[in-house]
């Protein structure tokens, strides 16, 4: 493979992205769609659901609106398609009058549905053509019956104006032509299914206008070319289901426009590159079902636009990075069927957009963070078949959007919190095969829309006794008594203070006898009536203010 420096020489002619984002047209079940661009018409692409489509026609025109040279050279190329696909039945020179052809100021659109019993091949293009005068800018081939067969012609790389290519079907074969790297105007390339094989050509970095690349469910193999980092317009790459191997190129971190990357069900190995944390535009990443290993890079917490990350069914391990709390746009995070371990970071409560979190069959342990109650958009949490312990946080009753929580097959204990019935949208709680005690709270059964899956003993008539919660140990009782008797015994550093504010060692709540609370929450000795002290009413106001400040910081 050529070096990255060589790619820089070949693909350094980076073009400023042309205007795009026109409306997406639904993919038609067509056999051939060829679009011949008028002299001053350009395609305006749009990224939507992984597909681009040509714009709708403008004012209708005729073949005569092209120059004579454009008509002659374009017709030579169309004749090659007609010869390779006899069922087209194209005759004559006035291609704008052919059945299914619409010519407009945006170009001439040819959309035909072939009989399911007919077939054809992909044509090689003639040599005796001035391709600077060929105005074809879109080729769509889709067959629902007999396949269009043949290898991908390298000669298509001569089509200077070509902006859209879609090939769907099982009959296509051969390797990806390196010569297509000269298609500097190409915005979308989709090859779906079929027997297309070979490797990803590094020369394709010359497609400087390419926005969408889809090669899913093909036989394409080999590594991801580092040279593709110079593709400055690329926004969506879908290589799912291909036979790719090798590692994730760190160089791809420099792609300035990449929004969506799917390598699902490929044979990619290696680790997640820390450098990818600088991919500021990446929104969707799917590397599930691959052989990736290593740990989750803390640097990926910088992906501020990331909305969906699928890392399940991989060999990833290690802890959940606290730094990922900065993923403020992440809506779906799937980490199931991995070797990830450690505890659930309380700081992930900052993932304010998180709606779905999947941690099924992992090694994650520890307790459920009470702080996650602030995740206002969380709808579904599935951490089943992991190693979680501790109790169900009553604080989670404040989650306003959660509809489903699945915690089955863990080591959770304690009683089922009655307050969880206050979850406004809860529909299902799956909690069986844990170490809970007591009965299903009556408040849960009172919610008609709630389905609760628990072990039978929590619903039995004698659940209050047969599944009774154990009495607290002397150590636990001592801890509770110490806590309820006031926090002054634990780290209160204010002189002459009998009790500090909860959680504070420097703000007093109650002073010793003969001392009064000052407006700085310290204690001053009473030296006379009202001298240098705060009155009882004033002390209450100051204390309330300090409590408010404290509550604002927890």
Give a description of the structure.
The protein has 554 residues and is α/β, with parallel strands linked by helices. Among the domains are: 24-182, Leucine-rich repeat, LRR (right-handed beta-alpha superhelix) (Alpha-Beta Horseshoe), CATH 3.80.10; 325-469, Leucine-rich repeat, LRR (right-handed beta-alpha superhelix); 488-553, no CATH class. The protein has 6 helices and 34 strands. It has helices at 4-11, 68-84, 442-445, 463-466, 474-484, 536-553, and strands spanning 32-36, 101-104, 107-112, 120-121, 136-142, 148-151, 164-168, 172-175, 188-192, 195-197, 212-214, 221-222, 236-238, 243-244, 260-262, 284-286, 293-294, 308-310, 315-319, 332-334, 339-341, 356-358, 365-366, 380-382, 387-388, 404-406, 413-415, 428-430, 435-437, 451-453, 497-500, 508-511, 515-517, 523-525. The protein has a 17-stranded mixed sheet, with no helix packed on it. It has a 4-stranded parallel sheet with strand order 4-6-8-10, with no helix packed on it. Residues 1-5, 10-57, 112-116, 476-490 and 527-554 have low confidence and may be disordered.
